[in-house]
Q: What sequence folds into this?
């Protein structure tokens, strides 16, 4: 029961290491189920067989060195096997091939920025090639973060002041979920990203800055959905709808709401056209220029009552994206 | 070890020996101090439990339910810090241990009664600091206080740190007191090889308290200085190392896990032979394995840091060493089950809680092996799998055992019997509620849901909902327990000196015990688990 | 009670079989307490070891700004205070009350002397901006990690100084009880235990001095 409930519950295998991981996981589940049944089964059997009955005497036993020794030796042996097996998989998780494609990752409350060798930068989405080793070299601008891709079974803390790394060779194209796993404050649970694994054609297109077409969503809970439309791939829908996609992709949602609730930053509902009181005492009207200026230089116009924690997005948002974004914010009445 | 149990009906006992509030607040009697700890711990348990229920309520669905993210982060911090520092760590040693240890040793009191009372007040001062934070800007660091977040956050972390720092000294002094008590105050004839297993467990626990807690003290002190003057040792902005903080923190906090579980194992070891009417199976194995666990406790802290960025070699060593935790733990489980074999088992509430403990602890222990395994841990750490694992060990282990011990010693403490029927209903509520709450969390973790998440992806909804519903049953179970314990205190049936027909010394004196525990100093003549084949009856609770 | 100098007969607590048992228990308790103290300072020593292992050059440069002479004087002062403390214990055991009082006063005076030297030392550090971590403003030291050395310097010597202050408090308390004739050959547990504690405080300094002031 314990076994079955868990067996189908790990994410899909997005890498070869994930498949090895699942092998050990299954072994551990089977072994645990065996010992659970052994211990709890024995207990339940004894509960029934040796319940108190008048006149039924007990047997005077104070221990058995032989049984204790067996009970020490067998688990020790099993544990050593588990240890060795676990270490061998772990070792291959840490040894990135020398020719791995490198991406630099920066964690900041509460978004992920990715920098590529060709000078491009993306936020909360990282584009990587299929079936090629990829290495992320990661650091943090503020506090600890954790970079975790469940489909690949890998995770690594991202530490300010030093670089840590993680590597994988994805075997399933599509978008894979990334979580921040090291508690980092208010929007910890909103610090999400996607690893977007591109096949050869898409990878070429991406490097040439051309549209890459549809990318399937790889649900980590085991189901694969291929039909989902990618906001990156398709510039479809109204400008405001495109803006909504940018809004989510760039991580605005981590700190701002569109329904009137206050998160780390003020809500964007009804923002456009309203008068905004700033921390330095000025009052400004939230027009296109204010919004654009605030996105690019947030520290220059912090809103009254909020902390100046927003990072600058200068250079991270293209002009077309900016227009879409403003159109979206405008639509939030 | 049989000794006369003089029934001093309506006579002098520790409860009526002196009267008035001041006689309690200034008491040097270990039994009264134990009860004061018990009352305080149960109060904090209520507070920590309410936070737990609120957390689960927020997680009933994705999106905002009842509280925003900042409030949620404070709540899980309060839940963790209160439950760890103010409930589980002091629960069995300071509350039950204080009450039972001297009596079970045949002593009149602990070695240093004044220090014992001081420990209680130190604990309460620490608790007040920690709780004061709730009324100010709170604290949102999690109970682990990881740097640099704990340096940057603008919440009143400093109060919680001060609280934990002060409460730590209470723990150190209690440990010191117990070690000396066990060494110097055993009754005539109570040799080391006749020492009840609860004492062995408390002895091992005390050693950890004495050796590990000072390291926590200095760590918290450094963190306080980090916030007050910016000393920079843990702050990367000033050239410091945040991973060093984790090493310091876990050097205490991993052994602290055994401060929580070892006394629980001691309680289980006392109850099983009594209710099975059989000698303890593998007495020495259980006694020594406590020390085995205490020893290993100090050399495995790095298994909390497999993905922190520590060296691969360190991970290798810590994973290997951690595997050995399972060995002495397995020996204990084996001996407990072995004691039931060919026994004559009576199923009263204390024993039911023992069965509950064994079921939950087995799951907690086995999932611990998953987390000790390097590669497996990389995927599972910092997810709900870890949350479920340590709740199975801490709640399933320590709290079940606390409940077992409370029911077992309740007649001794108050001279009254609780309602057996109510106790059994409450037990089933808690046990079932617990499994419903935490089994789904293993699956959530395996699927990849990270811990400390105020919000989650819609895929995780069903399991979270089941978990939340389970938490209501746990709440209901404990609430019901509070009701019947209260009734028992007011109008419970009178308890005899030894309703369970047990052989340890605390049962050889009236219930409740007289002011100095024994009418005359007991002399021990045999092993505490000498249950002969025909000794199968007990008065019980019916 | 044969000795005329101790007027009060000590009664052991009721839960001990004898005064000897009580003495042994108290001694054991004190030893365990000192173990916890060792572990508390141990945390700082480990942090120091790591810092020195990581940045040996920085530690070497930074330590040159510590006043070795003052540190050395304080070492002598503390060792002397340990000797007077030991003499106070043995005088009490022999029932020589007035001598015990004299030695206890001397111990406290040595401790005061230690604090005065420390005061001048700290003032000089403050004056030169050699402050812990974020407050460091000295430009003599070029290594950006230098503030960390002073963080540890102040943490270690500061925690030690708090122990000196606490020690003075308990010695004062023992002195008061000695003056009140509460100790003698048959009961001197507090004096002896305070002595243990004071030797421990001294010992910590004996480690601190070379590690901080005399880095090779």
A:
């Amino acid at each position: 029961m314990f076994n079955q409930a868990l067996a189908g519950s790990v994410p899909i295998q997005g890498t070869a290491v994930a498949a090895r991981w699942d092998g050990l996981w299954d072994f551990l589940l089977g072994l645990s189920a065996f010992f659970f049944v052994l211990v709890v089964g024995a207990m339940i059997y004894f509960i029934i067989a040796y319940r108190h009955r008048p006149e039924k005497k007990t047997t005077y036993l104070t221990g058995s060195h032989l049984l204790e020794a067996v009970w020490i030796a067998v688990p020790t042996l099993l544990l050593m096997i588990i240890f060795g097996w676990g270490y061998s998989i772990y070792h291959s998780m840490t040894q990135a091939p020398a020719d791995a494609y490198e991406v630099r990752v920066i964690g900041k409350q509460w978004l992920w920025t990715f920098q590529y060798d060709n000078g491009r930068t993306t936020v909360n989405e990282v584009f990587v090639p299929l079936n090629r080793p990829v290495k992320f070299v990661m650091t943090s601008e503020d506090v600890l973060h954790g970079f975790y891709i469940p489909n690949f079974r890998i995770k690594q803390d991202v530490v300010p002041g030093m670089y840590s790394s993680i590597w994988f060779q994805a075997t399933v194209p599509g978008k894979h979920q990334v979580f921040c796993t090291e508690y980092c404050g208010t929007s910890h649970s909103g610090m999400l990203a996607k690893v977007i694994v591109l096949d050869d054609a898409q990878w070429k297109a991406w490097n040439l800055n051309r549209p890459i077409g549809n990318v399937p969503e790889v649900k980590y809970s085991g189901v694969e959905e291929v039909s989902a439309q990618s906001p990156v791939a398709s510039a479809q829908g109204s400008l405001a709808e495109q803006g909504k996609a940018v809004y989510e992709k760039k991580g605005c949602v981590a700190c701002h709401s569109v329904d009137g609730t206050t998160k780390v930053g003020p809500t964007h509902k009804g923002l456009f056209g309203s008068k905004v009181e700033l921390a330095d005492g000025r009052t400004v009207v939230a027009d296109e220029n204010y919004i654009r200026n605030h996105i690019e230089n947030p520290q220059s116009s912090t809103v009254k009552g909020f902390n100046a924690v927003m990072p600058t997005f200068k250079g991270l948002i293209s002009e077309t994206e900016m227009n879409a974004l403003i159109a979206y914010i405008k639509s939030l009445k | 070890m049989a000794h006369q149990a003089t029934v001093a009906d309506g006579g002098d006992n520790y409860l009526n020996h002196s009267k008035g509030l001041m006689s309690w607040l200034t008491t040097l009697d270990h039994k009264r101090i134990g009860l004061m700890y018990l009352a305080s711990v149960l109060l904090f348990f209520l507070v920590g439990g309410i936070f737990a229920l609120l957390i689960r309520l927020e997680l009933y669905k994705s999106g905002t339910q009842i509280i925003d993210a900042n409030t949620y982060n404070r709540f899980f911090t309060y839940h963790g810090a209160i439950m760890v520092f103010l409930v589980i760590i002091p629960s069995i040693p300071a509350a039950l241990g204080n009450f039972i240890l001297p009596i079970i040793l045949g002593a009149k009191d602990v070695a240093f009664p004044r220090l014992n009372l001081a420990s209680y007040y130190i604990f309460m001062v620490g608790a007040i600091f920690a709780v004061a934070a709730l009324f100010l800007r709170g604290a949102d660091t999690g109970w682990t206080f990881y740097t640099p977040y704990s340096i940057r956050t603008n919440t009143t972390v400093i109060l919680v740190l001060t609280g934990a720092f002060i409460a730590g000294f209470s723990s150190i002094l209690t440990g010191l007191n117990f070690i000396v008590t066990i060494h110097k105050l055993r009754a005539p004839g109570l040799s080391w090889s006749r020492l009840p297993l609860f004492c062995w467990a408390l002895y091992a626990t005390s050693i950890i308290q004495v050796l590990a807690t000072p390291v926590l003290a200095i760590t918290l002190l450094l963190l306080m200085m980090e916030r007050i003057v910016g000393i920079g040792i843990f702050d990367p902005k000033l050239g410091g190392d945040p991973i060093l903080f984790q090493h310091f923190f876990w050097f205490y906090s991993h052994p602290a896990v055994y401060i929580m579980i070892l006394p629980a194992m001691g309680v289980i070891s006392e109850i099983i032979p009594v209710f099975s009417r059989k000698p303890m199976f593998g007495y020495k194995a259980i006694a020594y394995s406590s020390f085995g666990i205490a020893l290993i406790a100090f050399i495995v802290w790095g298994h909390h840091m497999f993905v922190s960025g520590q060296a691969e070699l360190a991970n290798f060593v810590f994973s290997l060493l951690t595997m050995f935790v399972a060995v002495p733990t397995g020996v204990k489980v084996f001996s407990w089950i072995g004691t039931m074999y060919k026994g004559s088992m009576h199923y009263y509430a204390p024993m039911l809680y023992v069965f509950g403990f064994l079921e939950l602890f087995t799951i907690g222990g086995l999932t611990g092996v998953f987390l000790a395994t390097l590669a497996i841990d990389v995927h599972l750490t910092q997810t709900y799998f870890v949350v479920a694992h340590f709740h199975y060990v801490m709640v399933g282990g320590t709290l079940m055992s606390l409940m077992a011990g409370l029911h077992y010693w309740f007649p001794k403490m108050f001279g009254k019997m609780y309602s057996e029927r109510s106790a059994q209903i409450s037990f089933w509520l808690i046990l079932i509620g617990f499994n419903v709450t935490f089994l789904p969390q293993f699956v959530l973790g395996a699927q990849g849901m990270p811990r400390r998440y105020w919000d989650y992806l819609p895929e995780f909804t069903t399991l979270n909902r089941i978990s939340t519903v389970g938490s209501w049953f746990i709440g209901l179970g404990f609430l019901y327990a509070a009701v019947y314990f209260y009734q028992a205190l007011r109008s419970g049936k009178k308890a005899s000196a030894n309703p369970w027909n047990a052989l340890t010394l605390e049962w050889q004196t009236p219930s409740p015990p007289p002011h100095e525990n024994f009418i005359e100093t007991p002399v021990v003549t045999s092993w505490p688990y000498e249950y002969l084949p025909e000794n199968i009856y007990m008065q019980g609770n019916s | 009670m044969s000795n005329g100098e101790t007027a009060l007969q000590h009664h052991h607590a009721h839960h001990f079989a004898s005064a000897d048992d009580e003495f042994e228990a108290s001694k054991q308790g004190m030893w365990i307490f000192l173990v916890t103290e060792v572990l508390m300072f141990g945390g700082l020593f480990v942090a120091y070891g790591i810092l020195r292992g990581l940045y040996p050059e920085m530690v070497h440069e930074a330590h040159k700004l510590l006043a070795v002479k003052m540190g050395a004087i304080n070492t002598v002062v503390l060792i002397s205070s340990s000797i007077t403390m030991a003499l106070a214990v043995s005088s009490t055991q022999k029932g020589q009350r007035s001598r015990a009082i004299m030695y206890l006063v001397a111990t406290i005076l040595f401790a005061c002397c230690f604090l005065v030297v420390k005061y001048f030392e700290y003032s000089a550090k403050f004056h030169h901006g050699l402050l812990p971590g974020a407050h460091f403003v000295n430009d003599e030291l070029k290594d950006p990690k230098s503030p960390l050395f002073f963080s540890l310097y102040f943490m270690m010597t500061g925690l030690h100084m708090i122990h000196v202050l606490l020690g003075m408090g308990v010695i004062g308390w023992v002195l008061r009880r000695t003056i009140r004739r509460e100790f003698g050959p048959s009961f001197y547990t507090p004096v002896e235990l305070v002595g243990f504690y004071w030797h421990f405080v001294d010992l910590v300094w004996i480690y601190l001095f070379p590690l901080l002031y005399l880095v090779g």
Summary: Residues 81 and 109 of chain C are 8 Å apart (CA to CA).
